[in-house]
Automatic annotation (TrEMBL):
InterPro entries linked: zinc_ribbon_bacterial
A Pfam family the protein falls into: Zn_ribbon_21
Descriptive protein name: CPXCG motif-containing cysteine-rich protein
């Protein structure tokens, strides 16, 4: 992981709606992963889409553990 490939985004938990800072590692390319909410500890699905050409974040989708992303 390279620090220059980290992008910070403010997102809201899909469970408790608490805003928090999420660091997205763009060096991994497009991928899906999980992150726990720092407030309520619920598991949040993340779908991260990164442009293969520019390496920039195209989209970031968050969902509950039973959502289909």
């Amino acid at each position: 992981m390279h620090e220059e490939a980290l992008e910070s985004r403010t997102v809201n938990c899909p469970y408790c709606d608490t805003p928090f800072e999420l660091l997205v590692d763009l060096s991994q390319g497009s991928h899906a992963t999980w992150e726990d909410c720092p407030q309520c500890c619920a598991p949040i699905q993340l779908r991260i889409e990164v442009s293969p050409v520019s390496g920039e974040l195209v989209s970031l989708d968050l969902g509950r553990d039973d959502d289909v992303l």
